Amino acid sequence: MLILSRKTGESLILDDRIEIKITEISGEKVRIGIEAPRDCRILRKELRQTVESNREAAAESVPRERLRLLTQEIQK
Q1: Per the CB 3.0–4.6 Å rule, which of 14, 27, 66, 71 could disulfide with 18?
Q2: Which pTM does this prediction carry?
């Protein structure tokens, strides 16, 4: 892991396409701005974890055989 110190107004550039700018520091909170191409998906880590957990729970709630049969019906 790379750890850097930045001040308000300073930026980081990732892969020559993404700029992460520190817009405000107030107490323990840091506000950042992200400028990236539209095809670059940006998610908060906790949101991504929730989505993955929900997908896993949904997959487990449907019996595999039923899921296989539904997939076959859709492909017809």
Answers
A1: 14
A2: 0.63
